[in-house]
Amino acid sequence: MDNEIREEHESYGMLQIHRQTCSPAINLYGSSITHSNLISLSITTGTKTRNLLNDWYSNGKTIIEVIMSDTQFAEAITSLNMGNGVPVTLHRIQGKSIAPCPEESKRQLFEKEFEQDCRDVSNQLKEALKESEKILSGSGNLKKEDRQRLSNLLYKINQTIESNMPFVNEQFNKQIDKTVLEAKGECEAFFTNAINKLGIEALKDKKPELIGYEK
After folding, report:
1. Angle at 137 between CA 145 and CA 148, to 5 degrees
2. What is the pLDDT of residues 2-18, one digit of tens each?
3. Helix, strand, or coil here: 1?
4. pLDDT for the residue numbered 190
5. What is the DSSP letter of 142?
6. What residues pair up with 37 in beta bridges, in sequence order?
7. Residue 94: strand, helix, or coil
8. pLDDT exceeds 60 at position 208
9. Which of 68, 97, 126 is the last residue of a domain?
10. Are 83 and 112 found together in one domain?
11. Under a CB-based contact definition with an 8 Å cutoff, are residues 199 and 130 in contact?
């Protein structure tokens, strides 16, 4: 009855999912806001112990650990067989800690890209003005090729404004919607953790015998 049999094999593994909190908030890969409430998923080596007519499973060395937001975790488990997967932040591989995720501000990124678009339009306008002055400063009537060159320059500027700017606005609005969703998920996770903590404390005060708690 008390003969313990311990088994290990390269195919044995254990998966753990934990809810964590951290302070200060950190950046996560694929997220545009910082997070204090995290979901941790780790895979470790596994060991099976046979004792007392039962199997007992325990974890060993960490193979990989990733962290993600509540929104990313929800997306991962509800979008099986879809796309390339969901971004997660590598936290530990083979016991080695991974450097923190670098900060990524979507607002700053959009500002940088929009400034570049504005510079492109400005450069096109400068080119058009320079070419216009050169053509109009000449004597005599405008030639057909000169009028065509001016028309092409103005058309190019108009196309940039009419096509690129609405696209930038559309992408910006999509990102804002995603950021709002992430912020909502962060708030919900915070309140869920707070409620769970208060519930556990209440159980300790009212029913200590249920959870083996002694004052």
Report:
1. 20
2. 678 999 999 999 999 99
3. coil
4. 58
5. P
6. 21
7. coil
8. no
9. 97
10. no
11. no
